[in-house]
Design brief:
With 457 residues, the protein is of the alpha/beta class. The protein contains 14 helices and 13 strands. The protein binds guanosine-5'-triphosphate and magnesium ion.
């Protein structure tokens, strides 16, 4: 079915490295290689066996460009399922680009983003969830994130989806019989085991949808805003979590005026920490912009670290911020615990999670990290019992639609409406599941998936 042109790209990162790899995939891979590669063994490129690495030179206009190792992987046993050649050359920017240029001159086309992986998908070697796992693996920021992507790459999600589809297909087979041969049981209720199938699909879809919150956090991190009035020690707190002097700290209120963002890793979950300007009424134009940004951050954040100075009585400004954050997910940090305690924290009725620290003296920081970790994981554990975690909003949307279709089916059955209606919703549910794995796909969908890839993957 597929006749694709031959594509090429540099697959290693742009810059200087020990080696660089120029990758070629398609019918003409070996033909192109034969025009530019002279083996030391004297073999012609077309004679090279699959899964071999071959030593020689890239030669252009009679001049040796680089000494290289070339791997040959013949269809269908390659990443793309097509004939593939990988030229391992010296990793300078110019060398790799020169070799790519020569490859293109000899008949290949520059590959689009993710086009190699797209071909692996088109060739049927992987499904869409696995292709998406490739990009997640490349961009993973923590070990947890690697684990989840690796599970998907191995096909865990793909298998789960096909298991759900099988359950629905059983139901569909029954429904079709009832529709086609009405005399054989139009008034019979749906058999128990098929009702159970539907219930199981519903439950699994629901669990997977719930796992998305956790998945998203594992993949993208938890946006954590450090907020409080000026001078309570927000920047000091950021620095102590980062274990470096990242933000400027002074005794002058209004030191931080911009948003400072850094990622830390707490037990495998990335925390995107955002230090903000202290919130107060101010005439200073620059500081005021910072204050507005801080207020926006309160809206955007998944978690708020509300910092108070424990060595002072609460001030009006603290109460103003409290009003903005009291109904959000908040951990309260009572800073400056190295000094005498003056704050009456009980008065802030809604603040439940409270930790005393001294950012300056480095007291209570580890305890705070543990508190943050258990706070962000606790709610996830109750919300997700499915061992497979989804991290992709596309998957979540399709699962939501599947769940809705199954709900409709239950309604139809309860109300005793005709089986034709069940058939329609079953089809929708099955189509939505097929969209996740890419069995049903449109050009738009594929563009959307592969646009996030890098060239050369
Ligand atoms: N004693 C004591 N002083 C602290 C502590 N944490 C911060 N400070 C001091 O408090 C002052 C303000 O600290 P910052 O971290 O700049 O406070 P901030 O909340 O970022 O202030 P703005 O950026 O102005 O909003 C500095 O002089 C710090 O040295 C602490 O735990 N104990
Ligand atoms: Mg600051």
């Amino acid at each position: 079915m597929k006749i694709f042109d031959t594509i090429a790209a540099i697959s290693t990162a742009n810059g200087e490295g020990g080696i660089g790899i120029v990758r070629i995939s398609g019918d003409k891979s070996l033909e192109i290689l034969s025009k530019i590669f002279v083996t030391k063994s004297g073999k012609k490129a077309e004679e090279l066996k699959s899964h071999t690495i071959n030593y020689g030179n890239i030669v252009h206009n009679g001049k040796i460009i680089d000494e290289v190792l070339v791997s040959v992987m013949l269809a269908p046993r390659s990443y793309t399922t097509e004939n593939m050649v990988e030229i391992n050359c010296h990793g300078g920017y110019l060398v790799t680009h020169k070799i790519l240029e020569i490859v293109l001159e000899n008949g290949a086309r520059a590959a689009d983003k993710g086009e190699f992986t797209k071909r692996a998908f088109m060739g049927g070697r992987i499904d869409l969830t696995q292709a998406e796992a490739v990009i997640d693996l490349i961009t993973a920021k923590t070990e947890k994130s690697i684990t989840v992507s690796a599970d998907h790459l191995r096909g865990d999600l793909k298998e789960k989806i096909s298991e759900l589809k099988k359950k629905l297909l059983d139901v569909a087979a029954h429904v079709n019989v009832v529709i086609d041969y009405p005399e054989e049981g139009i008034d019979e209720p749906m058999p128990e085991h098929l009702i159970n199938n539907l219930k199981e699909v519903y439950k699994s879809a629901d669990n997977l949808i719930k796992s998305y919150n956790k998945g998203k956090k594992i993949k993208e991190g938890i946006k954590t805003a450090i907020v409080g009035r000026p001078n309570v020690g927000k920047s000091s707190l950021l620095n102590s979590l980062l274990k470096e002097e990242r933000a400027i700290v002074t005794h002058i209120p209004g030191t931080t005026r911009d948003i400072i963002e850094e990622v830390i890793n707490i037990n495998g979950i990335p925390l995107v920490l955002v230090d903000t300007a202290g919130i107060r009424e101010t005439e200073d134009i620059v500081e005021n912009i910072g204050v507005e940004k801080s207020k926006e951050m309160i809206e955007k954040a998944d978690l708020i670290l509300f910092v108070l100075d424990s060595s002072q009585k609460a001030e009006e400004e603290d109460w103003v911020i409290y009003d903005k954050i009291k109904n959000k997910k908040v951990i309260t940090i009572l800073n400056k615990c190295d000094k005498e305690k003056k704050i009456e924290i009980e008065k802030f009725e809604k603040l439940k999670e409270i930790i005393y620290i001294s950012a300056k003296e480095n007291i209570g920081i580890e305890n705070m990290e543990e508190k943050i970790y258990s706070f962000i994981t606790e709610e996830e554990i109750e919300s997700s019992s499915e061992e497979i975690i989804i991290t992709n909003s596309r998957h979540r949307a399709a699962l939501e639609r599947t769940k809705k279709s199954v709900e409709n089916i239950f309604e139809t059955i309860e109300n005793g409406f005709p089986m034709d209606l069940v058939a329609v919703d079953l089809r929708d549910a099955l189509d939505n599941l097929s969209e996740i794995t890419g069995e049903i796909s449109t050009e738009d969908l594929l563009d959307h998936v592969f646009k996030n890839f890098c060239v050369g993957k």
